[in-house]
Amino acid sequence: GADAVMLSAESAAGNYPVEAVRTMHNVALSVEGDATYRQVINAFRTYERTSVADAIVSAAREIAESTDIKAICCFTESGTTAIKVARERPQVPILALSPSVHTLRRLCLVWGVSCVATGTIDRFKSAVVSAARAIRDLGMGTTEDQIVVTAGVPFNVPGTTNILRVAPCDERLIYRAEAE
Questions:
Q1: 93, 114 Cβ separation under 8 angstroms
Q2: Please, what sign has the CA dihedral across residues 52, 138, 122, 101?
Q3: Helix, strand or coil for residue 162?
Q4: Is the pTM of this model over 0.90?
Q5: Residue 94: which residues within 8 A CB-CB, separation 6 or more?
Q6: pLDDT at residue 47 in the model
Q7: How far is the C-alpha of 104 from the C-alpha of 108, rounded, in Å?
Q8: How far is 124 from 143, CA to CA, in rounded Å?
Q9: Beta strand pairing status for 146-152 and 161-168?
Q10: What are the residues facing 75 on neighbouring strands?
Q11: 166 φ, ψ to 5°?
Q12: pLDDT averaged over every residue in the chain
């Protein structure tokens, strides 16, 4: 599958630029809504996991698809984790959180990824709270919902994805779980 599609002359110099973009959008939605789309995605999914990050993103997708998860939230320095999650084509939104504007700009073109800029985060609990707030702020979930959060420790080091947590979107529950 494609992450993005591009129109050039049709939207830049054509007589019907809005209609051209709308038609391309509708075609993409139609393909992804087709009954066989999910079967094709599953048939071509790579099951060879060569790193901890590969296993983490695969587990994130499986958890999201087998439970009532609202989104997969990836803390990413380089963007690689969000790209790996997108390759899994989960049936829930992907939220990439990063302090790097450069990374977030690149991720805007990746399939299924929404982006949120964060400050520098150095503790996993802070990351989970930031993800829960972002999901609620974007209208992707409520305090009643749960999300999957992926990150890497040590923070702010590319290539360290090694943590997955199923977390509530209610900070009070996150803090209570940490205290126990």
A1: yes
A2: positive
A3: strand
A4: no
A5: 71, 72, 74, 82, 85, 86, 112, 113, 114
A6: 62
A7: 6
A8: 19
A9: antiparallel
A10: 97
A11: -90, 125
A12: 89
Q: Where are the domains of the chain?
A: 1-44, 49-179
pLDDT in tens, 13-50: 778 888 888 988 898 888 888 888 777 776 676 666 78
Using alpha carbons, select from 106, 120, 177 the residue that is nearest to residue 154: 120
- Could you read off the pLDDT of 118-152 as tens digits, one per residue? 998 989 999 999 999 999 999 999 999 999 999 99
Q: How many residues does the chain have?
A: 180
Residue 58 identity = S
Q: At what angle do helices 17-33 and 37-44 cross, to 10 degrees?
A: 70
Planar angle of CA 132, 135, 138, nearest 5 degrees = 145
CA–CA separation, 75 and 128 (whole Å): 9
Phi, psi of 84 (to 5 degrees): -65, -40
Residue 165's contacts (CB-CB under 8 Å, 6 or more residues apart) are 124, 128, 148, 149
pLDDT (tens digit per residue) in 70-109: 999 999 999 999 999 999 999 999 999 999 999 999 999 9
Q: Domain 49-179's class?
A: alpha beta
User: Distance between CA atoms of 37 and 111, rounded to whole angstroms?
Assistant: 15
